Amino acid sequence: MNVPRVTSESWANFCYDERVSSFLCEILKLQRDTTSQRGSKTMEIPAINLKAIVLVHWLLTVWACLTFWLPTSYVMSNVSVFAVGVWAIAQRDSIDAVLMFLIGLAVTILTDIVHFGLYYAVAEIQHQSLDRDLFRFSGGMAILSLLLKPVSCFFVFQMYRERGGEYSVNFGFPSITRNRDAYQSIDHQDQSGSSASSHNQTEGGKSGPRSY
């Protein structure tokens, strides 16, 4: 059997090929890592500060109340939500604070729609002759705040997830659970009933001797 002879030149070429292949593998790995990092950066949601959200909505609410066309319930609902937002800013690690702020923003979306539907048409008629431009500015700021609230809810929900919140929110209500171990199948009940009847029959057959 002829064994190929390994020379120094062939061994050097082999080592050179191994080094080149490993170097190329490292380059491809680095390129793949950089492309994945770029893709993750492009897919990341831009971080918005909670202070900016509270400040923008507070300013729009103040501008919405320049004229007295909205009821007191509109002001109280939004101011109470802003107070919860300040609590969420102060307690940076609190999950309940940011959750309550998120729920408050979602509820004020509904209440603002009700307020605008009930009071906007009447206020527009009242302000046709006096302070018409001021009423339009005030109404525009109130509508703008309403349009921005779903976007703010989205970013607040991202903050809630960053603080360790879960998708399933538990409000502490009692839940009814069914214990399946307490139930038996119909077949099992039939088998237990038939075995009990057969056992009774055998005991009856094994009773004492008959008296004639």
Task: Please explain how this structure is put together.
This protein has 212 residues and is mainly alpha-helical. The protein contains 6 helices and no strands. Helix 2 packs antiparallel against helix 3 and helix 4 runs antiparallel to helix 5. Its main location: membrane. It is a multi-pass membrane protein. Keywords: Membrane, Transmembrane, Transmembrane helix. It comes from Cirrhinus molitorella (mud carp).
Overall strand count? 0
Unreliable parts:
39-44, 175-180
Order of helices and strands: HHHHHH
Hey, roughly how much beta strand do the residues contain?
under 5%
The level of helicity is over 70%
- Compute the CA-based radius of gyration: 37 Å
Give the structural class.
Answer: mainly alpha
What is the residue-mean pLDDT, rounded to a whole number? 75
Shape: elongated
Biggest beta sheet attributes:
none
Distance between the termini: 106 Å
- How many separate helices? 6
Summarize the structure in short.
With 212 residues, the chain is mainly α.
List the defining traits of the structure above.
212 residues; mainly alpha; elongated; transmembrane; AGTRAP; membrane
Reconstruct the topology from this structure.
Elements: H1 8-43, H2 50-64, H3 72-90, H4 95-126, H5 132-162, H6 186-205
Helix pairs in contact: 2-3, 2-5, 3-4, 4-5
